Amino acid sequence: MNEQDKLKKAVGEKAATMVKDGMKVGLGSGTTVYWMIRSLGERIQKDGLKIEGIPSSNQTAIWAEEAGIPLTDFSHVKELDITIDGADEVDANNHLIKGGGAALFREKVIAQAAKEFVIIVDQSKIVDTLGEFSLPVEVLPFSWHRTANEISKLGCVPTLRVNEEEPLVTDNGNYILDCPFKVIPFPDKLNKEIKSIVGVIETGLFIDMVTTVIVGEKDNINIK
Fold first, then answer.
1. Catalytic residue among 89, 107, 138, 202
2. Is 107 assigned a catalytic role?
3. Which domains, from first to last, does the chain contain?
4. Could you give the maximum distance between any two Cα atoms of the chain, in Å?
5. β-pair partners for 202
6. Strands of 89-90's sheet in order across
7. Which of 93, 111, 143, 178 is the most buried (most CB within 10 A)?
8. Distance CA 22, CA 202 (A)
């Protein structure tokens, strides 16, 4: 296991300790969340922890089932106690870029539904200003060319995300445009501008949603 994976494992296990008996838990996506899910599964097996989770992606659902985490959905749960997820970038104000794993829409749903939204990252994801990571935007396939053209007027050249030379299709049946803005000094403004474009389903900008960030650093875990 390399150093970065060790950091991901450490912050995932730390976040799992925030989950208490009886909680409804939003389960994010990505490799850091994988370690959190594994840790929760161990607590269920060893300590009898009783929780229910709502996964943000099909892959997360598979991991949760393998770990023995009971799953539910929003037809049975109106509010989550906590959502734990990763991020592609975290800025100085705890605004996020997410969507590298193409699950941003469901990730935003479970984040908004939670009383606490906890982000787990290694130190490489911490930035002063968002934008070096291309902003993912989930869009309707029917009009993606036109949507991309409208987004380009805001200062980037969107690229359709592909998988084996075919458009990548999200768990919701949509496409992802990766938008390299390079620097996003006013993420709230940009988020509103993109979401006003017809054909946009959701953006990977998560603004004023985070309650806690757990950062894996070389010699310790930093919580902010």
1. 107
2. yes
3. 3-127+207-223 (3.40.50.1360), 135-202 (3.30.70.260)
4. 54
5. 138
6. 89-90, 96-97, 205-206
7. 111
8. 31
